[in-house]
Every structure is written in structure tokens, then in C-alpha cells.
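Human: If only I could read C-alpha cells as easily as an amino acid sequence. Take your time, and here it is.
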Amino acid sequence: MFSLLGRTDMAEEKNAGDTDLPAFFIDLNLDQILDRVCEGWGDKVRKLYGFFPATKEDEEYRRAVYTDIKKDGVREALELYYRSIRERFAYASRREAAVERIQKHVWYLREVNTYICSLGKLSEELDRQEPASEGMKGLLAYLKECISAESFKNIKSVTAELWKELASFRVVLTYEKERFTIAEGKGEGGYEAFLKESFPDVKRDYLSPFTDTEGYSSLEEEIVKLFRKKHRSFFKRLEAFCTEYPVYLNEGIAGIENEMLYYLAYAQFQKKMSEKGFNMCTPKASKDKLTATALYDLALALTNMENGREVVPNKVYLAEDEKFFVLTGPNQGGKTTYGRSLGQLVYLTKMGLDVPADSASVPYYTNLWTHFSVEESAETGRGKLMDELVRLKPIMKDEQKGAFVVINELFTTAANFDAIEMGRRVLKYLTDRSCKGIYVTHLGELSASCPGVVSLRAMLDEDHVQTFRIERSEAVEDTGINRQVLKYRLTYEQIKERFS
């Protein structure tokens, strides 16, 4: 079955969407990002962000689809179709709530007619836009196949005939001497349009006299009696239509609709971020080099955007022969934020979406793993170090070759000698299995733990104040104590001056 999310069979991945989101979502604050991306789009769409494409080719397939959808014409066509989906849901809800059988039939006819018309419009507009990606071309071919099917033509013909007849019904209401007179009328347009045309000088909004309740009002009941009496054939055919076509939505189209929203939700989110001044770009495929310019933490940007604070971007460069970053530096210097931004970069690239940077080149990674330091849990009774080792176990598997790993402050409760030795073993294990990533730590010794490790440091300015800039630099002794000494004027010379 065709899918907008990849070439391969998506059945297994769609089932995976019913499970909880991966653990790294919390570590990388992706849950906070998805709250914004999926706001108003529903849980079904959110679940699609919970699993990676099956192969490298599927990642590229998604990226090409998203590139097409970012084009104004294609996006607008899909957004129009999305509005039709919401209309159908509204009509279905009204149908289920309706009390009278005729009401249910009419709401169902509206629902089916909306589906048929919107499918045809989407096919026409996509054909006009001439999409370039394999996925969007596949969608267009699938739409044309559905529309040309005999079953679709049959229901389209019957629906069009019934809808045209229903839309032609008109009633004339005359109110005189405290009595309504009801008669069948002629004409086009709705009641509100008629009143505006008849009373152009009256500055007010006109409302239909028919109530918006689940059942009939007494006036509506009399109107329905009139039409049922004069149009018996129509109501018989309408009932037969609902019986003959109890299901109208193509199963494949139903699945594709949800996949469309996966891209539309992110495109709308990206547009809002751009309006706020936050750049995002399409990452280029790279053989083995990881680079990015002006990379920032997307979750932090959302928070700072509300508080009116700036976000400090950073650059990334990990060459072909380099394997792992080891990031050291003072507390509150932006180390964890930098690690998160790298994880978000890899995640969004794997999902085929644009990333929070001015430019980026990202290799294919088989998976994404994270391990962030957490508070000791009283529930397990194991202690923090044992908890860390238990959480580390799934990452250190032979089958996890070629993954990207983000580690933040591991083994913080162990003695320095033990933490350094365990950290070295973790790095060697991962680099031996072609994994790449970043290890955020206060242990500078790990920057020289094995070949291919690159030392990064959170930088300070000349006054020893955090700049939140991350640069290649040899690890040095933490200057946090020195900063506090300077801040509170506790140097030897300052103390001597105060006592003299």
C-alpha cells in the first residue's frame, strides 16, 4: 500500500505509533517541541513522530516529500484538503448526534459529497503543481487511480445527483396575522444572502431562523413534512444511497490523510518559527561528516521566544576521521544545551524534516540514543550509579552499530578515578562499533581517552562570564571557583586591600 512516509511497508511502523514515544524524547526535550508542532492536529499525528524511517532511502524519501510540501502551491492544496477533512468530521459528528433519520441521511450525504469533491480538487491541484519528489508523484498517481475506479465513479455519480437535487430545495415562509404559511419556492443562494440583498441598508448580521439543535423545531418539522410529501422519490433514493454506501472512505486514502498532516503540522510550525526570526534549513546528506552552522536548541528557542530572550547559536564540525565529541567546561555554560541541539539535529534529519540551523550536513545514523543524568530514584532502591548502569545497558549492544549517542554527565556519583575509567570504556565500546556522538562531562581526562575523540569546551569571556559558545579547545581545570572568587572580591589582593 502506498505511503507518504517511505517506500517500504509502513504497517509495522504504524503499529509502533501506538506505543509510548522513545525515551530520548524527554532527554532532548522533543516532547516540548512536539507539543507545539502537533497542537491542534491530534494524537494520531503526534504518534507518527515516535519512530524513525526504516532505511536511509526512506529518510531521503521523506526529505524530498517535505521539500515539495514547503512549496506554496502544494502546501495550500494540502491545507485546503485538510479543511475538508475537518468538515467531514464535523458532519459525521452532527450525523451521530441527529435524532431524526432524515437528518442523519442528509448529514451523511454532505459528508460523502465533501470527500468526493475535495479528492478531485486535490488531484487537480497537485497535477497543476507538478511535484518533483517520488512520494508526491506517488500520491498523485494514487489519487488518480482512486478517482478513476468504477466504485468511486458510481458513488460520485449518485452523490452528485442527490446533492444537486437537495441543494435546489427552497421554501417560502410567510408570517402574517401571527401565523406562518409554508410553501415550496424557487431560487438560488442561502437565506442570509437573500436578506442582505433584500435589505442592503440594514447594518447587521442575519441568522437562519432554523435552530441548530439535534432534533427538529416545530417549524422545521412542518417544512420537512412538506418536502417529504412533494419529493417522495428523493427521500427514498437518499435512504437507499445510505444503505448501499455505508462506507465511502478509501482505506488507503484514510491512512495517507494522517501522513499528510505529519508534514503539514511541521510546515506550519516552521513557518511560525521563521516569522519569529528563527532560521531552519534542509540538511544535506553527507557520507561521514557532521557539520552545522548557527545550530540552536529548538526547545530552548521556544521558551526564550516567549520570554523575549535571545538564543546563542553554535557551529558543529565532526570530520570523517573523528568519532566523538567530549565537551567540558563550567557549569551553566551551555554544555547540556549544546548536546541537546545535536540530538535534535540528528532526530529531525532522520525524520526527513528541516533542522534548526542556517546550514547542515548530516550522515546517516542507524539510531539515536541518549543517556542523561537523573536524580536518584527511591522507587528502584538501586542508587544512582546502578540506575545509570541499568539505563546504559540497552545502548551498549553489538547491534547498535553506527548510532548517534548523546551522553550527559555520566557517573557523577562515582569517584573521579572510577568515573574516568568507566567513561573511557564506554567511549571505546561505542567508537569501536562506529557509533558517533557527544559526551558532556566535567572530567577533562576523557577528552584524550581514545583515538578520534575531539575536545570541546564551553567558553568564558575575559571576565570569566559564560558566553554559551562551544568551541574546539583542550580541556582545562574548571574555573567555576575562580569565577566565584572574582565575583565576591575574594582574591588575595582584594582581601589584603579590605583589611589594610
